[in-house]
Structure formats: C-alpha cells, structure tokens
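call fold(seq) -> tokens
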Amino acid sequence: MKLSNKEIKHIANLARLELTEKELDKYGKQLSDVLGYIDQLQGVDTIGVEPTAQVTGLTNVFNEDKVCAWDKNEVSEALKQAPDIEKNQVKVKRVLE
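ret:
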C-alpha cells in the first residue's frame, strides 16, 4: 500500500511529528511497507478460528495487600520528608475533581 506525501504529512501531524522532506520519504516508505504487509494478512482464511488475545496461558498475578506497622521513628522520618502535613498525615493535592 503506497501512501501519498499528503497522507504521510497528515499522519505525522496527528502524531505531532515535525518531519523534514527526507524523513517524510524515509518513514513514508517504511509505513507503506508495514501497511502492505498488513494487507497481506487480510487474505488469510480465519473462518472457524476462535478470536484470542492471549495464547501463552499467562494470567494476572496479584500480591496480597499486607499492612505493616512502622515504629515511631520511621513514621517521624517519613513525615519530615513530606512537603505538607495535616493531622499527622501527608497532605497531597486533589487528584479527582
């Protein structure tokens, strides 16, 4: 699939890339080659093949949350490093509005 310079410039603009003419030629050819390969995959017969996103059997691994008590010295050292403290806790900026 051969992309025109106009299409390559449009894609570069969407990706917030400022490309020189030399880079447009280089990356345009590479992108055209990749899209050409993807076009080849369109011809593969996948009728009867189950869709899948994971084939190795891996699953998410979760660690159990554990509460570990700090001694008073550790707590005071940690609080000394905080930029803002309120009611003996580290105060942070609001994340959600």
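Strands lie at 85-86, 89-90.
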